[in-house]
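For the sake of clarity, the format in which proteins appear in this thesis is described at this point. The fold follows as a row of integers, each naming the local backbone shape at the matching residue. One such record is shown here in full, so that the layout can be seen directly:
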Amino acid sequence: MRMRRKRNLNGRIEGCKQVLLRTEGDGFYDMSPDQRTNLIDLAATFGNSNSLALEIGCGKGGFATQFAKQYPNVNLIAVEKLSNVIVEACEKALKEGAPHNLQFVNCSAENLHHFLPAASVQTIYLNFSCPYPKKAYSNRRLTNTRFLKLYKYLLKNDGKIVQKTDNFDFFEYSKEQLLANGFVLEFCTYDMYAEDVSNNIATEYENKFVAQNQKICKLIACLPKYSTD
């Protein structure tokens, strides 16, 4: 079921410009690839050369805001394709003081190369991405080969992907796709809360699943040090 458009969405989006760095905007898909490209000047945006983390599918912004507060020396760009959703994330960040190291981008994941330079990202966070359980929709999964190729483009050579999910089948699929695309699993668990979670930042979905006694899977994947992809 399609989400109903929020009342005064355009006005609320306009009120978030302090933290909303880029939007695809009307007519984005009518443009040529060159016209769509509007790369972010990261040094100018954040005023420093700190490493960059990227959360793809930030939802209502709970992880993003907490991460930015917990790691003030890491810049974070939180991405969400739904304007209805990202406006809440931006408003949450503003309400909690708009951490200096946090910005949002309203776009589909497959378009990130139009906004972020190559080899600019240290860590990509995939927190409870939609598993798209039907096989026919597997190319929409954020760990599908087409997305992993994009991540290789965006990641620094020593960059990492961190994934958390409650969906076992999706987790198995992600592992297979990562290994098939040249990534190495640095860490992998089918029950994250049986490990040390002292530095974990829980998302809204995560808290819900944990309350229901569902196990949380987590992996950290990286490219081999010798890779030049």
In short: The longest helix spans residues 83-95. DSSP finds eight helices and eight strands in the chain.
